[in-house]
């Protein structure tokens, strides 16, 4: 079906000659009557309108405005024998795509119409893509329509306007901070600050001053008062990521924040009331840490008023159909490359992979693929090598992060502390001293491993 072109000119001869020149490539309608043009626009789609500037009793600019109201997606090219810069600018302001002067050069007109249609097609694609992305966003910036994610969205919607503490559980890369931000942005605290603190990323010696702030002279280098993250979140939300990494010395102070809603900066005696909602997140088994004595039980229950458990990506594989297009569009736009599609082989690889790094890993894989793709199709060889070589047992963690499992013998009369030390030292030896592999094998953080090793050296 050819694009539809409407010619509106009060001179019948011009309309007839333009229709004759264009009808080979387009479905052309010509009229000299403005009411008829309005009626056509209200009943059928018109891709391009060639509109005369002077139309007897009608003003071309007023007609242009009315036509854009009836059919906003239509592209309008103004025609006039009296072209000026001022009139051209005014026509563009009113929504005209271009401006052409009479007598018309037919070859030039053909090129202009073609460019108009190409621009229109690009605009429509962008609009449709934006509409699609909006439809697939399950809640705020989170994407998903699987049953498990719908349950998560339902909980978020119920708790967004209350102040109870929330604890988000989930593997690394599942989007725990997105949940926290979604609760904040959609809830009653949206106009307040959202402050994020990664408890694993800040050295233990600095974490307390980072959270509570400090007074001038509190320690060497404290040359001025410094507000902490908790006070900065007053009136809003404080997100504590990797809460399981918080050292025991700070856990008691965090408990007081939750109970009393007040803080005392380091080196100060002045207490300050704060109105802060606490949302925490962890990829650890906090309850097991409570049983082991490395995490305070009272703090655990204070934080875990409303638990939200995020599923791993392998538990919501149906959401790949939404996540893959989202990331492809995101990275193609960032790299200023045409939006690519996936070959059948590449798509199959992405569907069968188990994503130990979850959504974060999927995003990295597709960023790599968009960068590597030479054409408009992502081939299997454009995927990272680890994905290309993935066999049926794709749930395994990449080899560079694990070491071979072996049996460890523990004497029956060993204490829990002795057994833990024997296990850690044996795994460290098996992993040839590589702490990252050892921590991954033991299911603990590198910081936790480092602290335990330091403790053993002191014994």
UniProtKB/TrEMBL annotation:
Which parts of the sequence belong to the Sigma-54 factor interaction domain? 142-371
Occurrences of domain Response regulatory (ranges): 4-117
CDD domains, per database record: AAA (cd00009)
Entry-annotated residues carrying 4-aspartylphosphate: 52
Q: Which residues form a coiled coil?
A: 112-139
InterPro entries cross-referenced by the UniProt entry:
AAA+_ATPase, AAA_lid_NorR, CheY-like_superfamily, Homeodomain-like_sf, HTH_Fis, P-loop_NTPase, Sig_transdc_resp-reg_receiver, Sigma_54_int
Keywords per UniProt: ATP-binding, Coiled coil, DNA-binding, Nucleotide-binding, Phosphoprotein, Transcription, Transcription regulation
What PANTHER family does this protein map onto? TRANSCRIPTIONAL REGULATORY PROTEIN
Q: What is the official name of this protein in its record?
A: Sigma-54 dependent transcriptional regulator
């Amino acid at each position: 079906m050819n694009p539809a072109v409407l010619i509106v000119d009060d001179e019948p001869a011009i309309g007839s000659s333009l229709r004759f020149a264009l009808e080979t490539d387009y479905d052309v309608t010509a009229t000299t009557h403005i009411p008829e043009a309005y009626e056509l626009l209200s009943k059928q789609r018109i891709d391009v309108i060639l509109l005369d500037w002077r139309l007897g009793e009608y003003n071309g600019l007023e007609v242009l405005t009315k036509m854009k109201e009836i059919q906003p997606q239509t592209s309008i090219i103004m025609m006039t024998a009296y072209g000026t810069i001022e009139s051209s600018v005014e026509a563009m302001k009113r929504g005209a795509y271009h401006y052409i002067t009479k007598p018309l050069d037919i070859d030039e007109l053909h090129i202009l119409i073609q460019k108009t249609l190409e621009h229109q097609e690009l605009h429509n694609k962008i609009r449709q893509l934006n509409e699609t992305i909006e439809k697939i966003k399950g809640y705020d910036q989170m994407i998903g329509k699987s049953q498990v994610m719908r349950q998560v969205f339902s909980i978020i919607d119920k708790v967004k306007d209350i102040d109870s503490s929330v604890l988000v559980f989930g593997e690394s890369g599942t989007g725990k901070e997105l949940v926290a931000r979604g609760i904040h942005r959609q809830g009653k605290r949206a106009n307040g600050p959202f402050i994020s603190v990664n408890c694993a990323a800040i050295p233990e010696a600095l974490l307390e001053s980072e959270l509570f702030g400090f007074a001038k002279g509190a320690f060497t280098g404290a040359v001025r008062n410094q507000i902490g993250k908790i006070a900065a979140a007053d009136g809003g939300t404080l997100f504590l990521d990797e809460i399981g990494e918080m050292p025991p010395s700070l856990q008691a102070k965090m408990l007081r924040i939750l109970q009393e809603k007040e803080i005392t900066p380091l080196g100060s005696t002045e207490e300050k009331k704060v109105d802060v909602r606490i949302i925490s997140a962890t990829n650890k088994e906090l309850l097991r840490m409570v049983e082991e004595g490395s995490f305070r039980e009272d703090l655990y229950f204070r934080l875990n008023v409303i638990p939200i458990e995020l599923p791993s990506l392998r538990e919501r594989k149906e959401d790949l159909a939404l996540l893959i297009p989202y990331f492809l569009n995101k990275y193609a736009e960032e790299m200023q490359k045409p939006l690519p599609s996936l070959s059948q082989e590449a798509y199959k690889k992405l569907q069968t992979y188990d994503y130990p790094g979850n959504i974060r890993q999927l995003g990295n894989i597709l960023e790599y693929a968009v960068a590597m793709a030479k054409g408009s199709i992502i081939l299997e060889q454009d995927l990272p090598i680890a994905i290309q070589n993935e066999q049926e047992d794709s749930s395994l963690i990449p080899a560079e992060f694990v070491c071979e499992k072996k049996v460890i013998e523990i004497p029956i009369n060993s204490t829990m502390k002795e057994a833990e030390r024997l296990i850690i030292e044996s795994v460290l030896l098996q992993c040839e001293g590589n702490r990252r592999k050892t921590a991954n094998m033991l299911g603990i953080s590198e910081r936790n491993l480092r602290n335990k090793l330091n403790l053993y050296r002191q014994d």
